[in-house]
């Protein structure tokens, strides 16, 4: 079964200046684990995305997926805690259903979570025991984003699609964002996504 077993820690940073050098200390601010995980996230289901824009078809990234509400995800076992761990999975047993008003697009039941809390700095530590390997139709991901301020931006921390063999860490933003030293599978020196805040850079290519 394609699934995540996850714990998340959020560590906040504070700077202290001493002479000509800067030291930085860290303290643990937030822990998400099996005792509180599903209370700290919003389950973004197909109905939520349809309420934003019917053109999404239940998924803003146009995947063959049917995102479940919290109650449906918990009752189906696609979101649960087991042996002190958080489990987030996809339905790998039943045939993918026809979804949307047209009933012409197949969507496999899955889970998409969005944290209720937000941060503007810190270190995020994710302890993932298992996640999907390279396989057709999988898209495991862990993203951070900001669509409420100018410039908008997104950091893709974990992302891989289909038979991709390596993780791809990506930066997306509006406005100037250039690098002189780059590396990775998809090297681009400019992470400006094009467009404006109002359309969240959706007309860009990066």
Automatic annotation (TrEMBL):
InterPro entries this protein is in?
Beta-glucanase-like, ConA-like_dom_sf, Glycosyl_Hydrlase_16
GO BP term, pick one:
glucan catabolic process
Q: Which UniProt keywords apply?
A: Signal
Under Gene Ontology molecular function, one entry of this record is: hydrolase activity, hydrolyzing O-glycosyl compounds
- Where's the GH16 domain? 24-206
Q: Give the signal peptide, or none.
A: 1-20
Q: What is this protein called?
A: GH16 domain-containing protein
Origin species, per record, is Fusarium torreyae
Q: What is the lineage of its organism?
A: Eukaryota, Fungi, Dikarya, Ascomycota, Pezizomycotina
């Amino acid at each position: 079964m394609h699934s995540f077993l996850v714990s998340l820690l959020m560590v906040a940073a504070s700077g202290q200046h001493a002479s000509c050098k800067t030291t930085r200390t860290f303290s643990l601010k937030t822990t998400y684990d099996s005792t509180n995980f599903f209370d700290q996230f919003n389950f973004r289901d197909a109905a939520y995305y349809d309420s934003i824009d019917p053109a999404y078809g239940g998924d803003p990234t146009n995947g063959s997926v049917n995102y479940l509400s919290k109650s449906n995800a918990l009752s189906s076992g696609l979101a649960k805690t087991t042996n002190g761990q958080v489990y987030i999975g996809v339905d790998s047993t039943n045939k993918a259903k026809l979804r949307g008003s047209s009933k012409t697009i197949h969507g496999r039941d899955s889970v998409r979570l969005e944290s209720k809390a937000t941060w503007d700095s810190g270190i995020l530590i994710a302890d993932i025991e298992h996640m999907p390997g390279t396989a057709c139709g999988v898209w495991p991901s862990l993203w951070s984003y900001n669509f409420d301020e100018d410039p908008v931006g997104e950091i893709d921390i974990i992302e891989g699609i289909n038979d991709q063999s390596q993780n791809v860490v990506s930066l997306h933003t509006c406005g100037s964002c250039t690098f002189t030293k780059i590396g990775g599978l998809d090297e681009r020196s400019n992470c400006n996504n094009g467009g404006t805040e109002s359309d969240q850079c959706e007309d860009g290519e990066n």
